[in-house]
Amino acid sequence: MIRLFTQYLQSERRFSPNTVKAYVDDIEQFISFLGIELEAFDPSSVDHKQVRRWVVFLLEQKIAARSVARKVSALRHFYRYLMREGRVASNPVSHLTAPKVQKKLPVFLDEETINRLLDSYLQVDDTFPSIRKKMMVELLYTTGMRRGELVALSISQIDFIQQQLRVIGKGDKERIIPVPPHLLQMLRLYLEARNKVVAEPDHQLVFVTNEGKPIYPKLVYNEIHEALTLVSTMSKLSPHVLRHSFATHLLNRGADLIGIKELLGHANLGATQIYTHISFKKLKVIYNQAHPRA
Hints:
Number of strands: 3
Mean pLDDT: 89
Structural class: mainly alpha
Largest sheet: 3 strands, antiparallel
Distance between the termini: 62 Å
Shape: globular
Helix content: 55-70%
Strand content: under 5%
Strand order of the largest sheet: 1-2-3
Radius of gyration: 23 Å
């Protein structure tokens, strides 16, 4: 049953591997909370009171509201799947309200800091790791793509003629991102260095390890984190900081919110509107500095 639900999340819902694993872990934790062996679990025997007790237990254990909300979402998806398959007649999670999660403002770097990193601090020598690190930072900031999208980026997705990238996002949703000439030139030089370390053309992924193998998410995180520490002392310095910076800088310079939504590959405008809070802060500073009665 869990195995079939996992396949459903992967093939039909097209959730990321991390999300699928988290959902399966959450469901197994719930079954364990009920004191039932996984093989003996009967989903039709669960009622809303048991689910509510589980949520209360999690909150009493000081589990973060965001994590509890995800666990509730996992269980809700599980029962929706079981109802679709005719395994249960009702969803015990349908009327449960998950803990309210306060939205966190995206962490970003200002334009001056980004320019200082790319133009001065992030020096490139003739070694492949150095060239790769600079290319990853430039590409993540200039396109706003996600870490997973960068890991999966293939050479065929780069259109040097039309000056654009074809990015495959969440749910296999495709979007086109324009690429400025200077970045295309950097990509050409990077690919020359990349082709020297790829022993056999067994894959067409753009980013590879020092041995020419496909790159992996943890390596990207480590490289970006190391680069960002050159210009910032913030605790959270992940690849997503560059994505947030991309969106924030576009909005601050007057870009349309719907256009930013398309560039980021968001499914709905609500996910993009979080950046308006950041811009409002900037507007407030400008107002207080410039208005004679402020």
